[in-house]
Amino acid sequence: MSWLDHRTGIETAIRNFLYEEIPDSSGWHQVFGSIAVFLFLVQAFTGALLAFNYAPTPGDAYNSLRYILTEVTGGRLIRGLHHWGASMLIVVVVLHMTQVFLYGAYKKLREATWMVGVVLLLLTMAYGLTGYLLPWDNRAYWGTVVATQIASHMPLVGAYLSHLLGGDNAVGVVTFARFYGLHVLLLPPATGLLIAAHVYLVRKHGVAPAPGDEVKSRKKFYPGQAFKDTAAIFAAFVVLFAMAAAVRVPLDRLADPTDATYIPRPDWYFLFLFQTLKFFDGPLAVVGSVILPSLAVLALLLVPFIDRGQVLRVTRRTVAIGVVALALLGWTQPDRGRPRHYAQARQYRGHRLQRAHRLDRAFAAGTGRYRIFPRRALRQLPQLGWQAGGALWARPRSGERARQEIGSLDDGAL
Amino acid sequence: MAVTEQSGVPASVARRRFYVGMIYGLWSLIASALSIPAAIYLLIPPKLRRLPEWAEAGDVSKLEPRAPVEMVFRQNRVDGWKIQSEKTTAWVVKLGDSQVVAYGPQCTHLGCAYRWDDDRNYFLCPCHTSVFSVDGAVVSGPAPRPLDRYEIKLENGRLLLGELHQSKEKA
């Protein structure tokens, strides 16, 4: 016992934390929660760094972000870490949830742990929604217009939500302040508290055992599992750092409320919601925008009460595996096999789309099978709304590269 | 218990050592990969956008010799992501027949605004009573160096001011 430990008890606390007993079956499949906590801390850190050079008002946000990207040394890397870290956090949180779901680790006694986890998932998405506005480029502006409109159409609470988000008349200074306040003042401490509660509950009930663990002796978290968590965190960090360093995050043109050509699209992890909107017209629109998502969240919260069977070996949980496979398909492939979507998009985009088609054909002719577009053609795309073009090129192989080209152009044009 | 061939260390101990070494090693890599860019981001000054502009301060043809006048003018300044047009002042004094000098308006001690004292013929800073002579030199008080001077240009009696430079001299 050292001097410090006598006074603070910190060493004992760390030792107790690290020498937690875990089931014999624990291993690589349980690393995702640790990665999620790590990525959350990276987001907090890079977010604070960005805030040091960022002015959260519609008048200045865009210029200050451009300043971070073009003038501050290392600014592009920090913003890249924050941007790609957000996407990665969503992926890892979902992987974490998928693992818990597949292994049935939410069953009896661990229901509250699961439900706190679902709330944490919603918070993660709330960061995505509020952070989307902060660059105040066209993408941010129009995405938020759609999001606040959806909120205002909610039955019963729509009007209040609209007041709350400051979106009564239009997306402007008030909405911006509310979103920024949520993003940096309210959500982080809420997340911190809920993570603490989540971890406390995990410790209280212990890491969920698999069938067969009851006849084996338990092992310590440190150093075996701690090493696995560390190695997984490191792998995730290497991917994140590589993306932040190599893949440029596009900054669109400054938000332009009069731009009728802009086609707002949410970030990829909200695309499935975006697609759901298209299935319901008129008075039924609220089904796609509010009712279905709410039911989905409710179902997610109630998972431990719907599935109350005995804990089974993961390979025998065929229904759970099926549910996960379907959900993953729906989440990541929202565009597949939906001719109706394309028909509507075509109608909506009108002659702009035809112009894009003409450009597409004209410039694809000389560029071989990948259809990478010459810079001359790309230069015209900002006028066209590059996402209109991007959607057209979304063919296997060509889409990503074209998008990258467009992304670098956007930055180059700054 | 299995024993490794070379060292005679039990395999479980060797494995434990490996785990602990990797935990410390990988976390050190992560910590440095985050803290070094953060330090660069915060400590290295941003690329400077130069503004090769001269601001017109006023007419100096009617200046009395050795009688400083405070001139107010507008100047563009790069402030982070903004270029601000802001009101600035300079203390302008004719030292010789052709020599005009313009001092920056802040005391070189801690940046307070100083004033010309007509009765006693010196610049006095009210904060910590630094006193500067008419040619900017420190007479008394805690100021560490003479008054800062603007780069100047004279065109037909009009005074154009450029960047503000610190004097290399010590008080």
Description of the structure:
The complex is a heterodimer of chains A (414) and B (171). Chain A has 414 residues and is an all-alpha fold. Chain A folds into two domains: 9-336, Up-down Bundle (Cytochrome Bc1 Complex, Chain C), CATH 1.20.810.10; 340-412, no CATH class. Chain A is built from 17 helices and two strands. Chain A has helices at residues 3-8, 10-18, 32-51, 61-70, 75-102, 111-131, 138-152, 158-164, 173-205, 221-246, 271-277, 285-306, 318-332, 339-364, 375-384, 386-392, 398-412; strands at residues 21-22, 219-220. In chain A, strands 1-2 form a two-stranded antiparallel ribbon. In chain A, helix 15 (375-384) crosses helix 16 (386-392). The longest helix of chain A is centred in the middle third of the chain and has 33 residues, at 173-205. The termini of chain A are far apart. Chain B has 171 residues and is α+β, with helices and mostly antiparallel strands. Chain B has two domains: 1-44; 55-165, Rieske Iron-sulfur Protein (3-layer Sandwich), CATH 2.102.10. Helix content of chain B is 19%, strand content 35%. Chain B has one helix and ten strands; from the N terminus they run H-E-E-E-E-E-E-E-E-E-E. Chain B has one helix spanning 11-43, and strands at 55-59, 69-79, 82-94, 100-103, 115-117, 122-124, 131-132, 138-140, 149-155, 158-165. Chain B has a four-stranded antiparallel sheet, with no helix packed on it. Chain B has a three-stranded antiparallel sheet with strand order 1-10-9, with no helix packed on it. A three-stranded antiparallel sheet of chain B has the order 2-3-4, with no helix packed on it. Chain B is elongated and about 95 Å long. Chain B starts with 10 loop residues before the first helix and ends in a 6-residue tail after the last strand. The relative contact order of chain B is 0.13. Chain A binds chain B through residues 42, 45, 49, 52-53, 55, 60, 63-64, 66-67, 70-75, 77-78, 223-224, 226-227, 230-231, 233-234, 237, 241, and chain B through 16, 18-20, 22-23, 26-27, 29-30, 33-34, 37-38, 40-42, 44, 46-47, 49, 80-82.
